[in-house]
Amino acid sequence: MPTATQAATPAATANAIAEATQPGRLVSLDVFRGLTVMAMILVNNPGDWGHIYAPLEHAHWHGCTPTDLIFPFFLFIVGVSITYALDGARRQPETHGRTFVRILKRSAILFGLGLFGALFPSFDFSTVRIPGVLARIAVVFLVCGILFLKTSRRQQLGLLAFVLVFYNVLLQLVPVPGYGPANLEAGTNLGAWFDRTVLGEAHLWKQSRTWDPEGLLSTLPAIGTGLLGLLAGQWLRRREVDPATRVAWLFVAGSGCVLLGLIWNGWFPINKSLWTSSFVLYTGGLALASLGGLYWLCDVQGYRGWIKAPLVYGVNAITVFFLSGLIPRLLNMIKVTGADGQPTGLRDWLYATFFVPYFSPLNASLAGAIVCVLIWLGVLWLMYRRNIIIKV
């Protein structure tokens, strides 16, 4: 488990905003990460999974909702962050061995946290889901970290193009053993077959057990999302280019990616669960434009009066994501007597008591999610005020 670190000097105990405004730090990246994690907490914690507004749900299969943007935005941010965290090490080849060990260690911790979350509270290794959000983040961080150290921007761009085309060919041209011609259906596509073959049905997403939205094969194009972040981060670090030009080209690149994604959608549909090549370009383009806008507002124009809430989420992003998945399960392990006289979990009782009677079903569910975001904001704000950052 990562450890909390507290500053020991007056300079280090300065608040996070003061740190973020220091030269060389990308304030917009912290804000972008925080906004993304806030959205992640909102959509992952509805009061009632049976009543959710459409924009707060994933697309049923093909297509893209606002909720589908959250995970690719986070992987894009991982790529950008790598360019800032490892730039010094990249310039010193003699340190690459030690840096690789650091990258591997962090990836292992992320994967371990994801596995722990999947095991909790039953710890049944025979049916534990192995793929997952944190597992995918771990793999993307590992691969993109190594690529950043060992490859040039041109090589990264070429690899991105290769991965997207190669993945398209795999899913649309390679026959699926036992099912026949290539297809893009949920349980019968090549990625689903590969997951079942390698991991076994018992270790896949429990809602289906025949395919997994964070499966093995679809992690390949997810690395492409991280590569887009690598390229964006390196562009922003080019100090010989003036800020207005950096922003302009982020918007140009973002618009181009969105357009290419929409064109590619014509024969390889935008699909988060498959993480299709069109999905990589479409969501990556929106991430480029979002980062460009935030960079212009926060880093160039200096509009920072509004950033405290996303910033406190951004500096402890993995912490809040991990704990927000565990705590509702812990609360429901505490049994209380419900209105019907039957024992019910504390989390469900709180929702039924304080939300259901006062709102429509959809609004009660949304209110529960918003309150969850606000509760975590309070916790993270306290951590931020005390300069407690749990590093992974």
Query: Can you list the strand order of the major beta sheet?
Result: 1-4
The poorly predicted ranges are: 1-23
**Shape call:** globular
How are helices and strands ordered from N to C? EHHHHHHHHHHHHHEEHHE
Counted by DSSP, the helix tally is 15
Quaternary assembly: single chain
Q: Can you count the beta strands?
A: 4
Percent of residues in beta strands: under 5%
| SS-derived structural category | mainly alpha
Largest sheet, in brief, is: 2 strands, antiparallel
What is the helical fraction, as a range of percent? 55-70%
What would you report as the Rg, rounded to the nearest angstrom? 22 Å
Ends distance: 8 Å
Mean pLDDT: 92
Give a summary of the structure in a few sentences.
With 392 residues, the chain is mostly helical.
